[in-house]
Amino acid sequence: MTESKIWCRMGEPMSKRVRSRWWIGLVVLLVGCAGLWLGWKLSDQEDELVTAERFITTHMMNDNGSLATYLKPALSTDPELAAGREALSESLGLWMEAAVLRQQASTFADSYEVYKNLFRHHYGYVYWKLNEEGHAEISTTALGDDLRILRALLRAGDQWNEPDYTQSGLALAETLLLRGQHNGYLVDFYDFERHERPTRLSLVYVDIGALEEMKRHGLLSEEEYSKYVTLLVDMPEDSPFYPKYYEVDAGEYGFDDEVNLIDQLIVGLHAADSGRDSRPLLDFIREALERTGKLMGRYDRSTGEPAAQFESPSVYGLAILLAVRWEDRELADRLNERMLGMRDHDPAYPGGYVFDGDTHIFDNLFPLIGGATLHQTQ
């Protein structure tokens, strides 16, 4: 009897210990499974980015290392537009930005050589467009492209402790300040053969990140930098859409009746960097997505209705950036899902957003940057 009681007393705590260990084991197993699932998910996302990069380097890169604007070759019929395998400085800036974001030192170094050898004029200007062979047939710059490259160079210089990158970024900034200003503001372009510049500053070009880098390196005073911040903070708020440009002489904003959503999203990102709340534009994105399941490339400014019937992967890539900027992960994931649904339509071009045998480089670069940013917030 005594032995039985002793056995029961000893058996009870033993049973609790076993149950406790069982629960601990289950928790460890579940945590391990969740870790494996997250690891697989992150690995899948990384594979998607690598595949996208491979498409660009395999199919969109010219022999000289510049990025072709289109997959299909075509003759240029308008010097103001890029055609076929012509290359844009904007594409170079985006590719540099992606390399900095993805911490790809080798890719950036290759891009830097393309910048120095093809896009940079010996007087410090940057050609906004080159032909397939890498020759310039224009004599103008583009402010937004220059600022994107400048920002990438200065951040790369810090990231990899490369003085050449930093010095090149500073030299470009000095050229812009010397030749590209009108009435105290940087303006859309400079024609270095005619020595002409406009009086207009497109708001899509007001790259606060680049301007902040210029201020950090002592090229812009706090007062000069604050003018651009104020320009974005003070934009009229009569709809979720922003003005298109600022007339420097008149001190007035200008509007389009139809808005390009790519431009609007870029302005929205710059506005967020300036401290302005750009969530009204994000709310419009969410509502449009909920209402129709997709985003169109252009919208009527007054009604908010689609003004075109085409989707663009670039729109989704940029919308992801804005959603991440305002910590709306649910919306960012929905946008990413819709964007990836547009990819790999042509089995001959895995990783590419190719339709009818052609694609635009922006429709591959903006999704790459958007996807990489989303991947880093996991």
Describe this entry's structure for a reader.
This protein is mainly α and 378 residues long. It is 56% helix and 6% strand. The protein has 12 helices and 9 strands. The protein has helices spanning 2-59, 89-101, 105-119, 143-160, 163-179, 208-216, 222-233, 261-274, 279-292, 313-325, 329-340, 362-376, and strands spanning 87-88, 129-130, 181-182, 185-186, 200-202, 245-247, 252-254, 258-260, 298-300. The strands form 4 sheets. It has a 3-stranded antiparallel beta sheet with strand order 5-6-7, with no helix packed on it. Strands 1-2 form a two-stranded antiparallel ribbon. It has a two-stranded antiparallel ribbon with strand order 3-4. Helix 2 (89-101) packs parallel to helix 12 and helix 7 (222-233) packs across helix 8 (261-274). The termini are far apart.
Topology, pairings included?
Blueprint lengths: L1 H58 L27 E2 H13 L3 H15 L9 E2 L12 H18 L2 H17 L1 E2 L2 E2 L13 E3 L5 H9 L5 H12 L11 E3 L4 E3 L3 E3 H14 L4 H14 L5 E3 L12 H13 L3 H12 L21 H15 L2
Antiparallel strand pairs: 1-2, 3-4, 5-6, 6-7, 8-9
